[in-house]
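For reference, the entry.
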Amino acid sequence: MISFSCISAWVILLTVGCSVTHAEDSKIVGGTTANERIPYQISLQVLVSSLFGFGPKRWMHNCGGSIVNEYYVVTAAHCLDGMNVSRMSIVAGTNDLRDDGAKGTRYLVESYLIHPDYIELNRSDIGVMRVKEAFTFNENVQPIRYSSDFVDGGVMCLLTGWGYTMPIRIGSTPKDLQEAELTTITNDQCRERGMPVNPTEICTFTRVGQGACGGDSGGPLVCNNQLSGVVSYGTRYCGIGVPDVYTRVSEFDSWIQQNTQTGGSGTSGNSTADEPQPT
């Protein structure tokens, strides 16, 4: 068993890395291309300058997220922390991010809210975003119900995302949405495998060579057709036999409900951080 002291040095958030140096883009390791519609899945993108600041700006995938009603998306707090809403947008309605996500619809982010108890790599890694224009629901864009039920170990769940597929995070991220069926483990089992989780988190581990990776952050873990987890953190090298950790949605269902009212109250959080740069 890997000791906590060894694992802790390699724990890493699973974003693309536009705004924080230790966060790296990635996709699901050991997954397959999602051929079916995942209508609740979105790509949270940030506007970045070209290398060395020359050339036009472009939108770049940073995190995943889940549509929960006509205006709101649930994602990870670390995907939002320090971000400027003027440089954030959401692509919905497509599994294909080629051509700047042209096969989907781009929605600008109006505001976001990070859970007040959020501590990076520790707890409450959850937040919500409100889009300026309501989502147009159709066969490709639909909300998902978020869970109020405790998910124990041994439950088969679906993870989707656009993270790296290589454990060492080389090359480019995929343009096609990836998916993997993963099994939850108990928090005691997760701690035995080296991840210092708390009751507000949930873990999955199925086999070596499969799991979440950077860029999957904020994306959905769906169990029993409900949003049960939000991708939070893992290790620097993905799919190496260490569990992936998600925010346990059932611990925050009341907070989500309170802060995703379509009247728009409560989601005023936005930052004026410096423009993120590509890594």
